Amino acid sequence: MEELLRTNDITLIPLARAVLEDEGIDSFELDVNMSILEGSIGILPRRLMVRSDEIDDARRVLREYGVRFED
């Protein structure tokens, strides 16, 4: 698995996951429990992971949908 994006924006990961799911790309969210422990004040970022062989497709799909993220 490789990191596709890391963000403190609580709306970005659900959006990215929905877009990826529509394209048949599986994803996995990390650090959910850590952000809950810190009280959901947005200090600790969450990460979205995808399979290594799908990382390029996932980046392309997110760009096509206009989802902003850093490589």
Features:
38% helix; 71 residues; Alpha-Beta Plaits; alpha+beta; 3-stranded antiparallel beta sheet
Any chance you could write out the topology, listing elements then pairs?
Elements (H helix, E strand, L loop, with lengths): L1 E6 L4 H11 L4 E4 L1 H6 L8 E5 L4 H10 L7
Antiparallel strand pairs: 1-3, 2-3
Pfam family, one: DUF2007
InterPro entries: DUF2007, N-reg_PII-like_a/b
Protein name: DUF2007 domain-containing protein
Brief rundown of the structure:
With 71 residues, this protein is an alpha+beta fold. The protein is built from three helices and three strands; from the N terminus they run βαβαβα.
Question: What does this 3D model show about the protein?
Answer:
The structure is a single chain. The chain has 3 helices and 3 strands; from the N terminus they run E-H-E-H-E-H. It is α+β, with helices and mostly antiparallel strands and 71 residues long. It has a single domain, classed as Alpha-Beta Plaits, CATH 3.30.70.790. A 3-stranded antiparallel beta sheet has the order 1-3-2. It is globular, with a radius of gyration of 12 Å. The model has no long low-confidence stretch (mean pLDDT 87).
Radius of gyration from the alpha-carbon trace, in angstroms: 12 Å
Give unreliable regions as ranges.
Answer: none
> Would you identify the CATH H-level superfamily?
UreE, C-terminal domain
Quantity of strands, as a count: 3
User: Which structural class do you get from the secondary structure elements?
Assistant: alpha+beta
Question: What's the architecture, going by CATH?
Answer: 2-Layer Sandwich
Give helix and strand order, one letter per element, not per position. EHEHEH
- Quaternary class: single chain
CATH class: Alpha Beta
Organism: Marivita geojedonensis
Pfam families: DUF2007
Protein name: DUF2007 domain-containing protein
InterPro entries: DUF2007, N-reg_PII-like_a/b
